[in-house]
Write a structure and sequence with these properties.
The protein has 201 residues and is of the alpha+beta class. Helices cover 57% and strands 9% of the residues. The structure holds glutathione.
């Protein structure tokens, strides 16, 4: 049984979605940001953050790596083999190193932090940094339903989960219509809807 530590309103949302896509049984261990810092939980996340995954004797941090692990357990089609496996690593690293830092700069300063702590210039820079990354994916999606063509894989899950907050919180996606349509496709899958119900419901 997978044990996911976090809350649906944290990055644990991605792991819930992945477990739902994989069809693997999982237990959500509700863990607030404060609880995650408790010394008793440091073995789960030495940095005192969420999410963390327990799978038997394996303990993992990093939400996108946790998703690769969940997908590995599920196997194809969620985690394909051969060159498509390498493409999943490529898109996951793009999500972690290119997409997420830029979009979080926007997100913290447009809807996550309390209004008095938001810096509009930081939000503007986060949006400006996100645009070329979104344009790149928009162009890649020409003639493709998903990042690897067909079918949906963990590459889609990981990148769509990084841009989920933007999609949900008013980031103007109109300059990137293929990206917007792809996010709609990913985030309205039955497994995504089940995960979203826990977060948004
Ligand atoms: N790169 C990490 C980021 C983990 C992270 O920053 N988690 C947030 C919640 S989504 C957290 O625990 N924040 C509390 C804090 O930083 O004190 C991942 O993807 O798992």
């Amino acid at each position: 049984m997978l044990r996911i530590h976090g809350t649906p309103r944290s990055r644990a949302f991605r792991n819930i979605w992945a477990a739902e896509e994989a069809g693997l049984p999982y237990e959500l261990i509700p863990t607030s940001f404060e609880e995650a810092k408790s010394p008793a939980r440091r073995h789960l996340h030495p940095a005192g953050k969420v999410p963390a995954l327990e799978d038997g004797s394996l303990i993992l941090q990093e939400s996108l790596a946790i998703n690769l692990h969940i997908a590995r357990k599920a196997g194809p089609p969620l985690l394909p083999e051969g060159d498509d496996l390498s493409r999943c690593w490529q898109w996951t690293l793009f999500a972690a190193t290119e997409a997420e830092p830029a979009i979080m700069r926007w997100a913290y300063n447009s809807y996550i932090r309390p209004p008095e702590e938001r810096n509009p210039e930081e939000a503007r820079l986060g949006m400006a940094e996100s645009r070329p990354r979104m344009a790149l994916v928009d162009e890649h999606l020409a003639g493709r339903d998903f990042l690897l063509g067909q079918p949906f894989t963990v590459a889609d899950l990981n990148l769509a989960s990084v841009w989920y907050g933007a999609w949900r919180n008013g980031f103007d996606l109109s300059p990137h219509p293929r990206l917007a349509a792809w996010l709609d496709r990913c985030l309205t899958r039955p497994a995504a809807l089940r995960a979203r119900a826990l977060r948004e419901g």
